[in-house]
Design goal:
Blueprint (H helix, E strand, L loop, with lengths): L2 H8 L7 H16 L3 E4 L4 E2 L4 E5 L7 H14 L3 E3 L5 H8 L14 E8 L12 H9 L7 E6 L3 E16 L1 H7 L2 H4 L7 E5 L23 H7 L4 E3 L3 H16 L8 H20 L7 H23 L6 H13 L4 E3 H7 L6 H13 L3 E6 L2 E6 L1 H14 L5
Parallel strand pairs: 1-9, 3-7, 3-8, 4-5, 5-7
Antiparallel strand pairs: 1-2, 6-7, 10-12, 11-12
Helix pairs in contact: 1-2, 2-3, 3-8, 10-11, 11-14, 12-14
């Protein structure tokens, strides 16, 4: 069973990008889990609350997955949903009030909610303090008991055990207005998964009834069971070693970017890995496939954050081509990670290389081998032979 995959499969006839349903489903899970589970990192606890921005040009049907997630959480009656146009003072005021979540045993004073908006640029009334406050609230572990905001004019806001999840959508043009440069570099984007897509699925006029009509209620029972899971998330020996080795390797070549995304990517990966593990099996145990998937997805989002914030496309096609050509040109079609980064340092950084490698591994084009602290990538013989045959037929020469 993989609940996330079930969601994306159910929406395969939609014109909204699959990645948008994938991340909307993760946000819905995050809202339900709240602070019920955590991963102990010894210096602090990691809770799986996430901030997600779906970014694409106008007309890419971004609102469909956002609406699905909102309806899903509301139907589950397991979390507070905040949507519609509001202001930061009003939002804080509402989060500080005791409410009764439908289906719960009684009223709760905990400031735990999912903030959902189909168009982020119109969600919050312009307020220069809005994103800095949300940036602060993201750090759930820093406010185990309460978060306090005191201003001379509006008085004191106190949020008990805050845990905020955000799911929103916007286009590239509105992104610049929604997230000013001060917040791009001030930590908000570093804490946010920017899910960028410029690829539209197959067109669907919706003149004819889809083969599979999505029933949102079908996905609610899982969330009901998810809400019951409580406690500490545990590493396995295999997943602990994998993450440790990756972290040491990544830290040695960590890209320097003004958003600070790469400095926080390890925590983001762990948040998503917990959610993906639970989507596969409702156990408080890190799943290796989920951890590897989280690493690839989060790194992809990190590149999207940098590209959308600074302008430009988020595609890695040119870097993939560089790595492929480098492997083909090498006598034994094998290169170390360090060799690639040193030779192509102006075109490929360690973050992008992670995405390219994950893509090529998934496509069964290369293999990887760890030797001490170094990792080597080798193009499979059958792939090399295919390229050689193609080059001879088309160009008359070997590559």
């Amino acid at each position: 069973m993989n609940w996330i995959r079930a969601v994306t499969e159910a929406h395969k006839e939609s014109e909204a990008p699959e990645r948008f349903f994938y991340w909307s489903a993760l946000a819905a899970m995050s809202a339900i889990v709240k602070k019920n589970i955590f991963l102990d990192r010894h210096e602090f606890k990691v809770y799986p609350n996430i901030y997600v921005f779906l970014v694409a040009r106008s007309g890419m049907k971004k609102g469909i997955p956002v609406t699905f997630a909102r309806n899903l959480v509301e139907l589950s009656s397991e979390a507070r949903v905040v949507s519609g146009r509001t202001s930061m003072p009003k939002l804080l005021q509402d989060l500080g009030k005791a409410i009764t979540v439908p289906g719960s045993a009684g009223p709760t004073t905990k400031a735990q909610a999912i903030i959902i908006s189909g168009e982020l640029s119109s969600f919050l009334v312009k307020d220069p303090d809005a994103l800095p406050i949300l940036t602060d609230l993201y750090n759930t572990h820093e406010y185990e008991e309460k978060w306090i905001n005191t201003l001379k004019g509006s008085g004191k806001d106190e949020l008990k055990e805050p845990c905020i999840t955000i799911l929103g959508a916007t286009n590239e043009e509105h992104f610049v207005n929604t997230v000013p440069q001060a917040d791009v570099k001030g930590g908000f984007i570093a804490r946010t998964f920017v899910v960028y897509s410029d690829t539209k699925p197959a067109p669907n006029s919706l003149v004819y009834k889809p083969k599979q009509l999505v029933q949102t209620s079908d996905f609610v029972p899982f969330l009901k069971e998810l809400a019951k899971i409580k406690g500490e998330f545990k590493w396995t020996k295999e997943t602990g070693e994998f993450f440790h080795n990756w972290y040491i390797d990544f830290d040695a070549t960590r890209p320097d970017d003004s958003t600070g995304t790469y400095n926080r990517i390890d925590t983001g990966i762990l948040k998503v890995a917990m959610l993906l593990s639970l989507a596969k099996n409702l156990e408080l145990k890190m799943n290796m496939d989920a951890l590897q998937e989280a690493k690839a997805e989060c790194l992809n989002c990190a590149r999207g954050a940098r590209q959308v914030s600074m302008g430009g496309s988020s595609t890695t096609s040119s870097q993939t081509r560089i790595v492929m050509q480098a492997l083909l040109a090498h006598p034994d079609h094998r290169l170390s990670r360090t060799q690639i980064l040193r030779k192509y340092w102006g075109d490929v950084d360690s973050f992008t290389l992670d995405i390219v490698v994950q893509t090529l591994l998934s496509a069964n084009i290369i293999t990887d081998q760890h030797m001490g602290k170094e990792v080597f990538y080798k193009m499979k013989d059958e792939i090399v032979n295919e390229y050689i045959d193609y080059a001879r037929k088309v160009k008359g020469v070997a590559p």
